UniProtKB/TrEMBL annotation:
One of its GO terms (cellular component) is Fanconi anaemia nuclear complex. GO terms for biological process: cellular response to oxidative stress; interstrand cross-link repair; nucleotide-excision repair. This is Fanconi anemia group C protein. It comes from Tinamus guttatus. InterPro entries: FANCC.
Amino acid sequence: MAQDTTVSKLDFKYWLDKATEWGQATTLESQKDVCRHLPQLQEFLQQIYETLKHMNSVVAIQQFPLIGQLLGRLCWNPFVIGYDESQKILMWCLCCLYSSEPQNPVELKANSWIRSLLCHLLSSSKWESNEAGTSSFISALGYTSADYYSHLVKNMVSSLVTELRGNQFNGLNIQGRVSASRLNEISLSCVPLITLPDLTPLLETLLLCHGSASQEVLSSEFLEAVNEAFLKKKISLSETAIFSLWLRHLPSLEKATLYLLDQLVSIQMTSLEEVACVIKDSLLPQAAIHPAIFIIIDEIFKSALLETDGAPEVMTIIQMFTQLFVQAHQNENKQHKFPLKAYFSCCHQPLVIALLRQPSAMHCCQHLKYISEMLKTLVEDESNNSSSADLFEIWFLIARFGEWLDVAAEQLLKAPAEPDALLWLLAFYYSPQNGNQQRTQTMVAAEGIYNQLMMLFNRTALSVKDLQDAVHEADIKQSSAQHLTTHLLINFLLFSSGGHMIAQEYISHMSETRDASREVCSLLLRAAYRARRSREGNRRATALLNGLLQNLASKL
């Protein structure tokens, strides 16, 4: 409680000064400033309420002697009471100050003042209808107050939409019809009412308007408020309107991408179908069909990967996003489809085309060998002639299409003919920055563990010690080789003759640390997703994976 009070007192003077400065927000500058501060003000009011609800009115006034001035000024600011849930929170705060049993004239007067403010908030005053005859006039029309003002808002919205569209039937080219300043004013006036459902047609029309000016005509406060409301699912807009928002306002696109990453990293992933649903719902894969949006999202993903040191959760998110983007691109109308080079301009185009193919059982090994050989040629050339940044671009392209890596690890054990090309592909993925000599060492280590696993692959009677001895015999020391070994071991447990019998125990052995658990969980999630989509319908693998993931969840 003491901490809440201290924080509130520190903020109190700031917000009281702001409320005094704003007045009833009659000037354009004050309106802009109110709009900029509305989200933070609502958070502050919520904190005030959380503090007040634990006090009686006497203690509240003693703790916050200026609370009446603050709430009184805010209640008469139309932008504040029109924003999201601020009006409701103001009413809660006022109710906390109301004395149920007033003991003196001061408390009686305070109660009267609170009642008048509550009546004001509950009445139509925020729609500027204070004339004495308004209520009877509305009743005579056969409306309730709520119905009347709802129709009033709809009519105002319809009028503004008509004004913005003019008489144009082909798009929203409003040059010469509505000035940039008028657009800016309209967009700013929408900010407090963003979440009002009746406002949706106006929001969409504004987002599709560009005017004749070369710079942005809509207020940044409006664009930020729309994006925030969309991310928190407080409004529903068409895909076209959202895409237009992100194309015209880079901060909104960046915030949407980071919001998606935070959302997915913070939840405990139980299936990649769940991850796919969240990503699809964000509309970002669909929006990424616009190359300008794709490039920005891609750069944010790269930064996230570097900042988290290649966290398996982030990598899984990027790979799933890429799959959904590819689906959206393939479903796009051919007349409006951008060429692949628009998205992967810095990448070797034959390699891009090869990776875009869907893995299938038929000719899978041959295609993987083709990818590996093409990649090896590129990497050897890049190592000799280009920078580490170029090498990173090649690696990141492979990482985006990580399903091929999972297929490679599976095929190494299930169809072991000519394993060198597939082992090299995995070795490059797990040690991209190493030179050819170091990667050769990783390959030697990978071959060692691979040979040990193949000797055990067809054994039906298998123990955890057998597998531990095989790993010990391979003597894996390099970090990159250890990650590659984990990838192979997961597939060995899933597809070998006796692996499923020891899978639970050995997975527990592999997942002793949190980092190891996250890596194993990511590999299992991807394997389960592939098993459920497989035409073969491997029920044993699917059931095993579900059990392994359920037990592993307790360690995360």
